Amino acid sequence: MAKEKKVVYYKDEANDDFAQLGIKRKPLGEDFEYIHKNIIWNTCSFVVYRMIAQPLVYVFVKVAHKQRFKNRKVLKEAKNTGAFIYANHTNMLLDAFVPNIVKMRRRGYILVGPDTTSIPGLKNIVEMMGAIPLGQTLSENKEMIECINHRIEKNKGYVTIYPEAHIWPYYTGIRDFKANSFGYPCYSNTPVFTMTNCYQKKRFGKHPKVVTFLDGPFYPDETLPMKERKEKLRKQCHDTMEKRAKENSTYSYIIYEKKESEAGTLES
After folding, report:
1. Distance of alpha carbon 92 from alpha carbon 84, whole angstroms
2. Which of 83, 138, 216, 240 gives the lowest tally of CB atoms within 10 Å of its CB?
3. Nearest Cα to 251, choosing from 84, 65, 9?
4. What is the structure's pLDDT at 114?
């Protein structure tokens, strides 16, 4: 008899987080550097990223998750520039690793929350692997934006953003998300791609395989005021990801259901 699927009940689609990391958040600290100029640090970063992390990540996602890319040819449309990639947030390990192998010759960066840089003893390692932590103060936000622009313009890298903000493991839909994070490409007029991780049943094993679809590029509409510009770009990305997920996420490893209130009606 087949094992029953796990059911997860949620109340708030925008704020519920099922990652269960249990990490105590710590401030970045006054000595935190977004852009390192020390040659020793940068040499270590190159070794960690290119010679250790990237090869191991490639093997891990291909063997453990049977991950493969579809429609990666669209990246050629932005071959001479950096770009932003917006993705659905559905797997702690894959979401941390897949951006590193979207295009092997390009450096991948990820905008991350404070949990990622609060892991004891790993702050430098995760940064070397491409993590760009969200600023928690005005001065940190300024440095963070300067860092993002530097990675896009000078390094021609890909900066991945998870606009859903919270992890819902193996979720097959696309949750609604705000337009706030689309300010980065709108202010810099940078091309945008979407990356939709879709789940499909494997022939063997209980966990699903992952098929990652890339779409774009999408460009900010500079004829619109900034607020409408961000919203238009958000809608283009959301609609594209939603279409991909509906057509290609064909296996639900975990079932997500809206939690009923005590009165027996669905909570709004």
Report:
1. 20
2. 138
3. 65
4. 79
